[in-house]
Amino acid sequence: xxxxxxxxxxxxxxxxxxxxxxxxxxxxxxxxxxxxxxxxxxxxxxxxxxxxxxxxxxxxxxxxxxxxxxxxxxxxxxxxxxxxxxxxxxxxxxxxxxxxxxxxxxxxxxxxxxxxxxxxxxxxxxxxxxxxxxxxxxxxxxxxxxxxxxxxxxxxxxxxxxxxxxxxxxxxxxxxxxxxxxxxxxxxxxxxxxxxxxxxxxxxxxxxxxxxxxxxxxxxxxxxxxxxxxxxxxxxxxxxxxxxxxxxxxxxxxxxxxxxxxxx
Length: 264
Description:
The chain is built from no helices and 21 strands.
């Protein structure tokens, strides 16, 4: 999540209230700020960008994007293309294809040679598509999934709320000792100890997802009363530090099974 996404203060579905007339806000917000972290992007075994002066662009309804000073980008590995796009808030973007040996990422980098006056600070910066790079690093740690947002928070708290999970009338799990995970922009999630789950009803799935704040998630399919419910359960076998307390706990997708949370 972000300042400019979903329920963030400058997002399209902001949850809170300002002490001024919000009609004064532009319908599309841009916010460009420094990051104190060293940011690196790697493609084809080469470091394409390596900077201690990278900046983050926050934009309404869009994930934050790293922008690098041109001098911190291997421009010798970038070939200009004829591809262009227009943004009414930033201007006309020019693109480059990245070539490293036989590896090629078409139109994987972009920049604004003549940005709109209100976005003039973009001049001299280059951005890279996250999913077209092979690896991204903050300092010496690899980041998974998408850029980390400094305004995103994950809190994991012990709870005594009773949680009951069922499907087709069959109880899958029941616990009064969940770990409650509160994450910016998302509803609370309750992770249950594996001892409180009927794992006989679970079958491992090949599905994996990556979260830059929690780590690599593994999934299970639920089989209840003859029905298979794909990828209804997930866990983080080796969570990142922010989510360390959900290790060996399972969470259930309440859009696929029934998750009842009661006050103790």
